[in-house]
Amino acid sequence: MTGFFHGTMTAMITPFDESGVNFGAFERMIEYQIAGGTDALLILGTTGEPATMTEEEKESVMRFSVKAIAGRAKIVFGSGSNSTRHAIEASKKAEALGADGLLVVTPYYNKCTQGGLYEHYKAIAESVRIPLICYNVPARTGVNILPATMERIASIPNIAGIKEACGNMEQICETARRIRGKCDLYSGDDNLNLPILAIGGTGLISVASNILPRETKQMYECVAAGDLADANALQDRMLPVIDQLFTEVNPIPAKEAANLIGLCGGVPRLPLTRLSPEHAKTLKEALAAFDPSLLQ
Predict the structure, then answer these.
(1) CA distances from 82 to 50, 110, 141 (A)
(2) Is residue 236 part of a domain?
(3) What is the CB neighbour count within 10 angstroms for residue 219?
(4) pTM above 0.85, yes or no
(5) 13 is in which domain, residue-wise?
(6) Three-state SS at 186
(7) Does residue 257 lie within any of the structural domains?
(8) Across residues 221-238, what is the average pLDDT?
(9) Phi, psi dihedral angles at 250 (to 5 degrees)
(10) DSSP notation for 49-113
(11) Is-contact 217 211, C-beta < 8 A?
């Protein structure tokens, strides 16, 4: 299927404090995104650290998100797992709690075959009625959705697209060619947002938009309007910040950036640790250079 989502989707941070999820901070983050023009919010994706959350915490976050967003943006919940059965259960729960769509990462650690990827996504997609976006991030999972496999997966009726974070533009171009008109291509790598849009990507699923939602949306709109000169100018301005948001494992720098701009990102849960002092310094410098008014 095509057309589920166009525009910008923020892969949301989950702010934690000593008692668990900091829902006050999370609500402020949601409002910041809505004010910035973000079209959809991804809750409990990789950036949201679901791997370190209990099932009760995840359900609470989903329920809170639906109530707080109140139809002002599309809601996509992460429901992936390296167990197909668990992913099905999580996807059904997300649908029941009000998700507009799902983001399902490839099975990690198991290192399944390309045939296994197809069967995994087919089983999950057939268990729900809402759109499903595949998430390809082999650096984290050890599994790569190859273009021919994605073409096959795209034939499943409620597969809405693929979030591509493989980092290989040659592969992404081939995937785009094979799925064009069957499902949509979304950028999952902020450094490649512009080139992925240029080859027909219909949206961005962004970490950087936690911090720069308005500019990320503006860049998308420039490309959509055919204004590549302004799109390049915006991406050029954002790239130093984007680079600093990935000096350490996501979402370590993104949480520190949220703290710096007054959004109370908190700190990551172990085994992730707080951003190192040297990277915190260069991150703050990049934010100040981009817009001094961002810093609190």
Answers:
(1) 13, 7, 9
(2) no
(3) 27
(4) yes
(5) 7-214
(6) strand
(7) no
(8) 96
(9) -60, 135
(10) -GGGS-HHHHHHHHHHHHHHHTTSSEEEEE---SSHHHHHHHHHHHHHTT-SEEEEEPPPSS---
(11) no
Q: What is the pLDDT of residues 39-93, one digit of tens each?
A: 999 999 999 999 999 999 999 999 999 999 999 999 999 999 999 999 999 999 9
- Answer whether 114's CB lies under 8 Å from 97's CB: no
Say how far apart CA 227 and CA 83 lie, in whole Å: 43
Do you know the residue count of the chain? 296
Question: Exposure of 114 by Cβ count < 10 A (0-12 exposed, 13-18 middle, 19+ buried)?
Answer: middle
Q: Assess if residue 237 is contained within a domain.
A: no
Q: What are the residues whose beta carbons fall under 8 Å from the beta carbon of 151, sequence distance 6 or more? A: 175, 178, 179, 182
Amino acid type, 34: I
How many Cβ atoms from other residues are within 10 Å of residue 133's Cβ?
26
How far is it, in rounded angstroms, from Cα 279 to Cα 29? Answer: 23
193 touches 202 (CB < 8 A): no
Q: Say how many domains are in the chain.
A: 1
Q: How far is CA 239 from the centre of its chain?
A: 18
- Write out the catalytic residue numbers: 135, 163
Residue 30's CATH number: 3.20.20.70
Whole-angstrom distance, CA of residue 209 vs CA of residue 39: 11
Is the separation of the CB atoms in 137 and 46 below 8 Å?
yes
Q: Is 252 within the bounds of a domain?
A: no
